[in-house]
Amino acid sequence: MSSLAHGNSTSEIEVTNISSHGVWLLAHGKELFMAYDDFPWFKDQPIKSLVNVEEQSPRHYYWPDLDVDLTEEIIEHPERFPLKWQST
After folding, report:
1. Buried b (16+ CB within 10 A) or exposed e, 33-52
2. Is the domain covering 13-80 a CATH 3.30.2020 domain?
């Protein structure tokens, strides 16, 4: 049995940073930023829920703990998709 060299990623997708402004997602070597202003579902969520992300199909990401799914196009161009969740 052999294992991967230390430091090599076995995943094509991962959350690389969480800040007071938003979340950074690294997918296939491309870094994507999701500002809380555009993606309010991620604000004030536990880290465990934010880092639990799956790629359900190419360039289509799903956070099962939050029931949020986004495509790379939505993340890169949120202005094209103006509908936003609002709390009651």
Report:
1. ebeeebbebbeeeeeeebee
2. yes
